[in-house]
Write a structure and sequence with these properties.
The chain is 63% helix and 5% strand. The chain is mainly alpha-helical and 210 residues long.
């Protein structure tokens, strides 16, 4: 049942909108550190909800997302190397895993990157669409845009072979990470699960090495 005073509240807000916005701006300016700390605590306690909300926002606001990424990079550009060094010191386990995977690929003689010929073959095979969500993807878009084109390792422990690489949008690639593809697909796309499994099985039949 709607509130009896809802129309009054809406009208009051429209009349006093500028004053409310001014108060909010002043509060944010004077309590910037307090707001930042509260947001950090909330995101830590509600990590999954915060991540999903941010992904939805990026999906529906691609231009603003790109603009924000550019402005953020320009802001941290002078001390970007220091930020990277600090991150490596604070996350030694992630650095160790990345180095281990890189050395593993070198020992198997699998290149870290993808050749242009193999990339063209993968695009032709997957028809320029993400094999998971079936959205059309574009490689010219910058990072952090959900429909940015990427090559995903179907088996995260496998090598860079045509039967283990597939086109994926940036959003699905980040969401999957190192998870098992079948378990992740069943949780993320239950209605498309059988269709995605059939695609993966067709890809796995190819044995050409990049």
């Amino acid at each position: 049942m709607p509130c009896k005073n809802s129309d009054y509240h809406k009208k009051w807000y429209q009349i006093n909108r500028e004053r409310i916005l001014k108060i909010q701006r002043e509060y944010k300016k004077n309590n910037r550190e307090k707001i930042r700390l509260a947001g950090k605590i909330y995101r830590k306690e509600h990590l999954q909800q915060s991540t999903e909300r941010m992904r939805r926002w990026r999906y529906y606001n691609p231009e603003r997302s790109i603009d924000y990424s550019h402005r953020y990079y320009e802001r941290v550009k002078p001390h970007h190397s220091e930020i990277c060094k600090k991150w490596k010191v604070e996350h030694p386990e992630e650095v160790r895993v990345h180095r281990h995977r890189s050395n593993f690929n070198r020992r198997l003689k699998f290149p870290i990157g993808v050749t242009k010929e193999s990339e063209a073959e993968i695009k032709r095979r997957d028809r320029g669409k993400c094999i998971y969500c079936a959205r059309s993807i574009d490689e010219t878009l910058p990072r952090y845009v959900p429909t940015k084109s990427t090559e995903d390792h179907i088996d995260s422990k496998g090598g860079s072979t045509i039967d283990n690489l597939a086109l994926s949008c940036w959003e699905c690639n980040q969401s999957k990470g190192n998870k098992d593809v079948l378990i992740w697909t069943k949780e993320k796309f239950p209605k498309r699960y059988n269709r995605i499994v059939n695609k993966i099985n067709r890809i796995k039949k190819l044995k050409s090495v990049i």
